[in-house]
Amino acid sequence: MPEGPEVHREADKIRKAIGGQTPIYLYFYHDHLKPFEKELADRKVENVEAYGKGLVISFEEDAHIYSHNQLYGKWYIKPAGETPKTNRQLRLEIRTHQKSALLYSASEIDVLDSESLEEHPYLSKLGPDLLKDVEKETVMEQTRDDRFRRKSFASLLLDQGFLGGVGNYLRTEILFDARIHPKMRPMDLNDAQLEQFTESALLITNRSYQTGGITTPDDLVKRLKSNGSRRRNYRHYLFGREDQPCYECGTTVKKEQMSGRRIYICESCQEG
To answer: Does an H or E element contain 66, and which?
Structure first.
């Protein structure tokens, strides 16, 4: 499933393609949304913004298309009227004179006014989005909140109410950068460790957004590239690197299942 950095980059791409323009054609796959094909076709696209893993395209006169990619959804930007070569099912198209923004295979799409958008089950419960200029103290407050402080980080970092947009690969990478074992809880950490977690959460998430999904620092990437490593090997510290050596200490990376998802751990760098 795309995580916050990927959805924010998609929002940037869509905004650049159709932002500030008035669509000449809209297509909705779902029958209950068909009436909006004509209704939105004469309204300018005012903004495109990501909220965690959700995406909102806002039109004039208080209309918003909300979408969530879930596991299989994917956006494409093509010249107006063209479609990509894919076996996916087209769910939504917004076409201007120059570009088409096409959403394939997404299972959750709706058209809402502002009030309904605020009350949406996903958006209304979303925690701070680390890619929206969130202050460190805001993240620290989440770790001290009674709703979260007694839960393991392995569980918390999959809870969109804790930090919006964080998912499975970010969970592994943030905890490694912070040197926190996934089974630990916020209440187990001292203030310095909580501050390190906060800094790592912001750093890793923003780095992934800026680099297109790379969570390792530039100096490590350059070193690994110079040694002939491919992207899948230098992209992450631990995620997807089971049985390979940790880049920091050389300990073999382990894969476990926590909260129903795979997670990768360096037992030396992340002592419990």
So the answer is: strand 63-68
pTM above 0.85, yes or no: yes
Catalytic residue among 37, 261, 262, 267: 261
261: annotated active-site residue: yes
Catalytic residue among 3, 6, 10, 49: 3
Q: Could you tell me which residues come within 8 angstroms of residue 222 by beta carbon, excluding any fewer than 6 positions away?
A: none
Residue spans of the domains in the chain: they are 4-125, 136-265
**Using CA atoms, how far apart are residues 266 and 243, in angstroms rounded to an integer?**
10
> Does domain 4-125 sit in CATH 3.20.190.10?
yes
- The catalytic position among 9, 53, 99, 171 is 53
If pLDDT is split at 50, 70 and 90, which confidence band does 272 have? low
Q: Is the pLDDT of residue 70 over 70?
A: yes
CATH topology of domain 136-265: Helicase, Ruva Protein; domain 3 (1.10.8)
Residue 39 confidence (pLDDT): 95
> What are the pLDDT digits (tens) for 72-84?
999 999 999 999 9
3 is catalytic: yes
How would you class 98 by CB atoms within 10 Å of its CB: exposed for 0-12, middle for 13-18, buried for 19 or more? exposed
Round to whole Å and give the CA distance between 241 and 258. Answer: 17
